[in-house]
């Protein structure tokens, strides 16, 4: 047997490989269950709908909730983008993108404006989203009140009674201790003036983009077995106080690579002397700004 | 950078049809008042509309009880629904997650307060009504004009609805349903292959 024979035996033809899976990995029964939960989540904005989360071929904490939501929504004609902290080229993003290339054979892209479904871990893209897009968030802890009240039975009751005083006390204690609201990510929002919701650990800088977004926003928490949603053009107000209004924060300087302002920047330490630079967290937006600048020259 | 896998030869199968139909239903409920279309994998017997059959076959199985109105409970539709969902229709509409029928048939159940509207702690444990109406259209096409706003709507969505029986009671029911938020039922109107979603959050008004 030649080396060539060996290599072809080791790598089965892609068509055969794909035939082993149902479209987009999950079986139809599971998809129906997730789809029913998604519809109720959309009908009750910000409410955490329980669902029978499945074990996925990746560990909890790696986007199993987001993957199940994406799988239930995906159609053949979709174009999928996956980002991890704004980047298309990090481990989590690459492996989930490959997962759907293999199991659903959908087109994938890194361009925000070309994508119809964007699965995200902890960022909202800088490029404004459109009505033709669905943004799927990976959520580690869906319950915004969990660190204040560990019992699910109690937090359920608090949501039912719209009893969110505890959350305001927490934000107040931030002010008492630090002089400002020190919560910088997973900053709670109130959706449609009813349910208080954890927007997943996105930086609070992204919170304004949650509100009245033209795209449908879906949230999947795999380990915690919850799905929730913010429908398009729905208010999602960051909690605050009259005398301490919500401040999205952010770095007051342009990206060191593309020069963009008004975008979320990552701080990168460049040596052991403490030198640092600030660069776009959204890699696609950064590349596009640089390409546009080059084209203009 | 766009990388598309090699084109595949798979013909539309149940999985792909269900995925496309689900997106239509999801869009309908996420953008109330927008007309979407859906057709089931296998044609449904009359008088079950293709859109209603598509919703049934996309969302219902043994874990989600459904109820067929007397008019839809023909032996052919019953056999179709049994085969497609692997489940028999529920006898009691008060137990059903999905109710299919005309408004005139479902109105008495709603009036009697027998629809599942969820509980304060679990408002998702509520029914979805799949109502058959005479016609639905996005633009002027006869019938009355309905305006929708609320979550999912930027300013206003309008569609044309033809509903001859007990239309006043229907709009009164929708208004009442909305005031009970977060409890309530969600409504999907169907006519032939068209559907319009009216979740419990939708504010629905009929233009004179």
Q: How many beta-strand elements of chain A?
A: 12
Q: What's the shape of chain B?
A: globular
Shape of chain A: globular
- Which regions of chain B are unreliable across 5 or more consecutive residues at pLDDT < 50? 1-11
Q: Please trace the helix and strand order of chain A, writing H or E for each element.
A: HHHEHEHEEEHHEEHEEEEEH
Strand order of the largest sheet of chain A: 1-9-8-5-4-2-3
Helical segment count of chain B:
5
Tell me the fraction of residues in β-strands of chain B, as a range.
15-25%
Q: Level of helix content of chain B?
A: 25-40%
Oligomeric description of these chains: heterodimer
Low-confidence stretches of chain A: 1-17
CATH superfamily of chain B: Bacterial phosphonate metabolism protein PhnH
In terms of topology, how is this protein built?
The complex is a heterodimer of chains A (297) and B (208).
Chain A: H1 3-10, H2 14-19, H3 28-43, E1 49-50, H4 64-73, E2 79-84, H5 91-103, E3 107-109, E4 117-121, E5 134-138, H6 152-160, H7 165-178, E6 189-191, E7 195-197, H8 207-210, E8 216-221, E9 226-230, E10 236-238, E11 265-269, E12 276-280, H9 283-296
Parallel strand pairs in A: 2-3, 2-4, 4-5, 5-8
Antiparallel strand pairs in A: 1-9, 6-7, 6-10, 8-9, 11-12
Helix pairs in contact in A: 3-4
Chain B: E1 2-3, H1 14-30, E2 36-37, H2 50-59, E3 66-68, H3 75-85, E4 98-102, H4 103-111, E5 128-132, E6 135-137, E7 144-149, E8 157-162, H5 167-179, E9 186-191, E10 194-198, E11 203-206
Parallel strand pairs in B: 3-4, 4-5, 5-9
Antiparallel strand pairs in B: 2-10, 6-8, 7-8, 7-11, 9-10
Word description of this protein:
The complex is a heterodimer of chains A (297) and B (208). With 297 residues, chain A is an alpha/beta fold. Chain A has helices spanning 3-10, 14-19, 28-43, 64-73, 91-103, 152-160, 165-178, 207-210, 283-296, and strands at residues 49-50, 79-84, 107-109, 117-121, 134-138, 189-191, 195-197, 216-221, 226-230, 236-238, 265-269, 276-280. The longest helix of chain A has 16 residues, at 28-43. With 208 residues, chain B is an alpha/beta fold. Helix content of chain B is 29%, strand content 23%. Chains A and B meet through helix 2, helix 3, strand 1, strand 3 and helix 6 of A and strand 1 and helix 1 of B.
